[in-house]
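Entry 14. Structure prediction run on the chain below.
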Amino acid sequence: MKILSIGAVPMSALTLIVCILLLVGCAPPAPLVKPVQPGEAPLAGALANIDRVETTGDGTSTSRTVDDYKRDLALRITQVNSTHIYPDRPQALLRSVVVLKFVVDAEGKLLRSEIVRSNRDRVTEATALKTLRATAPFPKPAAMLLRNGRLEVSETWLFNNDGRFQIRSVALPQMDR
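Output returned:
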């Protein structure tokens, strides 16, 4: 067996390969998303590949559960408000978490919205409400999801320090630190 030498330490070729593989395995993982580069579209990162909301010919969501419909709404909010969306993993310590409760009628019209949780950051509260309203009308909820012709939904806006957000139902995992 041929012996190689790195510095003052002799190594066999097999040992060298094993060491290299171990070092590669210890490297930090590649980011889950590609950072947005200057000149790229706002959703050029991982969120650029978000699914389109599937609807029937009359605009009714094909989702059959409230959670799936919430995901449809989150996708729609993300698409309509792309300039407000943070495309990478949200930071570990968020600037603000705003939970809105809102009511959608059988036609997808936003009937009512209210803040149910917040850290009282008025700017992020206003952004959450504004982006929700800007998205309406929503896909029509399936009839099976309605109660008295309405559907009540709660959704969470996760804000980074720069004021951009992700919607929890479609958000990427937060950074560790």
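The helical segments are 13-26, 66-80, 122-135.
Filed with the rest of this week's runs.
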